[in-house]
Amino acid sequence: MYPDPKTVTRVTSLGAGPIGGGWTAHFLARGFDVTAYLHDEAETPAFMSILNTAWRSLTELGLAPGASLDRLRIVTDLEASLEVAEFVQESGPERLDVKQALYAKLGAILPPSVIIGSSTSGLMMSDIQADCMTPERTVIGHPFNPPYLLPLVEIVGGKKTAPEAVAWAGEFYKIAGKAPLLMKKEIPGFVATRLQEALWREALHMVANGEATPEDIDIALMNGPAPRMVSQGQCMAFHVACGEGGMATNLDQFGPSLKLPWTRLEAPELTQELRDRMVDGCNAVAGDNNFEEMVVQRDREIVGVLNALRQVRSK
Amino acid sequence: MYPDPKTVTRVTSLGAGPIGGGWTAHFLARGFDVTAYLHDEAETPAFMSILNTAWRSLTELGLAPGASLDRLRIVTDLEASLEVAEFVQESGPERLDVKQALYAKLGAILPPSVIIGSSTSGLMMSDIQADCMTPERTVIGHPFNPPYLLPLVEIVGGKKTAPEAVAWAGEFYKIAGKAPLLMKKEIPGFVATRLQEALWREALHMVANGEATPEDIDIALMNGPAPRMVSQGQCMAFHVACGEGGMATNLDQFGPSLKLPWTRLEAPELTQELRDRMVDGCNAVAGDNNFEEMVVQRDREIVGVLNALRQVRSK
């Protein structure tokens, strides 16, 4: 039904904003031919400015063989922009009515074997695909800003999406140099934005209550959790910080602190089932690596990050 | 009353665990003479193992002139460990009764001009200092794990702490190579842990509800918000992501999304006052840097971080 994702060479990116521009730059840097659809010719200068900014960073990260800004084609006719597309990244306006109308058109124009990934950060694919006559191949492919630098893409289908299309998107984004996260369920905010939003709302509460300023919040994050979070997510950070006992020690020892007023968010009940999911999940990620090896690797990565930041900032 | 923090050369670190060990390694790496108090001689091998692991990373980060592991003295008599101390970092067991008893002793033994910083992550200084006869110089100096690598130290006094002692600690930790955050109010979890805990509880909810696995959570964090959060905290990340309009655009445009179920944490009411605090706070941090410069700097730092990680991981 769907072509081998390895064979895709032509991508169409819809949208002239920072997300559409970021995706365009990313796909060009990974060596694809990219057709960018802009609503209006007048958007071209701002769009090219996004691309040129992104290209400097992408060059420093290393371009794929043959990658070139010359392989970009800008088109203002939607149908023409889709003619040779083997994959479509949609980054249109974040309004449900606009997206539904767009997907109605895309569903009629594009052969049903072409997967469409939506960059939406707030809408659900089950809603977006409502008026699409070929909804099986429509998926969420949500990047993190800036999309030309941050590797994450969250992937999830709507009610009418085929599981094969979700799997295909996972493979394709990986081939295209991204870190795909195939979600288990369609939920508002997906995974990363939910986590970020919890942190953000706690920050707003603190500022509202005079407990911290925006500057305080940022000092705390940049110098505290962030350099470690690049190396280990919050689950593995706690797993490794607790030594040999890992996440089991963390939950058994600090479980009661989930009742403490350390945030305005109430924790879930720490049931045996939740405990086991956390412990088993961390053990699965750890695999054969022992505690000592994981500490050493974490520390090497944090040192690398801190030294890199110092180097960039001293220039 | 308190000596010039620049003149401090001798630090006493209390505690044999990962936090006490981490602090000891950090102060040694910054060129201090460090006396480490261990409760029991038998703790020495594990303590030295923490130090040796930390020392490798600290060496790669760059030692201060004259810094040496030879400038460590291990002592198992509390009074003797405090004899020449010009600053004390306390990383004892995280139990209020134990800390209160310890601060009663410290308060009697140490000259009142010696500042005591507590590494506690969950207790309040107003409680810890209850039985201390010289509580004016007792402050929280809460590090982030691993304390020999992550720069953050959150500083706040208790009800009986002198404001001068809090200010002194801020200066001293900065001289000692840390990123001090002087807190506005004494609140449970301080700033960084509150933010981290909100994120952690949202993660637990998601795992409990089968919305994500621990692995999913970590993939999302490591590849999404984390590499950017090293360069910009959440406030400046939103400020810069919104272009020229900055935080004002963010709040005016996305304010309504604070009502959306993007996390289980309800947001505060977005009052005019909260809006202004956020906007003014971000503008103050931005200073004279324009939007374009901040984007370029963010991107350079993210590129540096991603390349550093790739380099470490390829070895």
Provide structural commentary:
The structure is a homodimer of 315-residue chains. The first copy, chain A, is an alpha/beta fold and 315 residues long. Chain A folds into two domains: 5-182, NAD(P)-binding Rossmann-like Domain (Rossmann fold), CATH 3.40.50; 224-314, no CATH class. Chain A is built from 13 helices and eight strands. Chain A has helices at 18-29, 44-61, 78-82, 96-109, 125-128, 163-175, 192-208, 214-223, 225-229, 234-241, 246-254, 272-286, 291-314, and strands at residues 10-14, 33-37, 72-75, 87-90, 115-118, 138-143, 152-157, 179-182. Chain A has an eight-stranded mixed sheet. In chain A, strand 6 (138-143) and strand 7 form a beta hairpin. In chain A, helix 1 crosses helix 2 and helix 10 crosses helix 11. The longest helix of chain A is centred in the C-terminal third of the chain and has 24 residues, at 291-314. Chain A is globular and about 60 Å long. The termini of chain A are far apart. The model of chain A has no long low-confidence stretch (mean pLDDT 96). The interface between A and B is large, with 113 and 112 residues.
